[in-house]
Write a structure and sequence with these properties.
With 207 residues, this protein is α+β, with helices and mostly antiparallel strands. Helices cover 53% and strands 21% of the residues. It is globular, with a radius of gyration of 17 Å.
């Protein structure tokens, strides 16, 4: 994956709210529903009283609360696990969601804290039934890159379940990694690997 693509993936969750609106979003539209929670997310990242290692636990708690308002971690977990999802018990599914959410928090949320005001332009919103794609252009180091937020509607709520940039899908990336692991391990083996990865983050933080 191109290094610029990696960097953009790491700031996707926060740049959305600082962008330029090409046209007003319809009330209740996918784009409109993303904005409030991500507005709050940027406020958290800018809050001087929440900066520093001493405030890390509280800051992360608030960040994950806001991200959870717009991102469907259960849908993400089901998709990255693929067909294996239907072979495990409801209790195992719930536990996998917890571990997958923690993995995404560990890998990406720390990077969000390096947010430096990148700008985004909304260029298109496509809706087909209960699926939608919100397309933006992110300006980074003088280059504009297209970023697609893939969303699903449950009831009246639109939630993000994937992010795609330069043809790279966040969910497909994990799906391919997990598929490779499952070829050599059973489901319990995969979960153990994720647990160990999450534990390594905790230990590196000195928690």
């Amino acid at each position: 994956m191109h290094m610029k693509t990696i960097r953009i993936l790491l700031i996707l969750s926060v740049v959305l709210v600082t962008g330029i609106w090409v046209q007003a979003a319809e009330p209740g539209s996918p784009t409109e529903q993303l904005k409030p929670s991500l507005d709050s997310l940027v406020d958290i990242l800018k809050d001087e009283s929440l900066k520093g290692d001493a405030k890390k636990v509280e800051r992360r708690r608030l960040i994950m609360k806001e991200i959870s308002n717009g991102f469907d971690f259960r849908e993400m977990s089901q998709r990255v696990l693929g067909r294996t999802w239907n072979t495990i018990t409801p209790e195992q599914q719930d536990y996998f969601v917890v571990q997958m959410t923690k993995l995404l928090e560990n890998v990406y949320v720390g990077k969000l804290e390096t947010y430096s005001g990148e700008k985004v332009e909304f260029v298109e919103e496509r809706v087909k039934g209960n699926r939608a794609q919100v397309t933006t252009l992110i300006e980074d180091q003088g280059v504009k890159l297209p970023v697609h937020y893939i969303m699903q509607k449950t009831g009246s709520k639109w939630m993000v379940y994937d992010i795609n940039i330069e043809g790279v899908s966040l969910i497909r990336n994990y799906m391919e990694q997990f598929r490779s692991i499952l070829r050599q391990n059973d489901y319990e083996g995969l979960v153990k690997i994720i647990e160990e990865k999450n534990l390594s983050f905790k230990e590196s933080d000195g928690s």
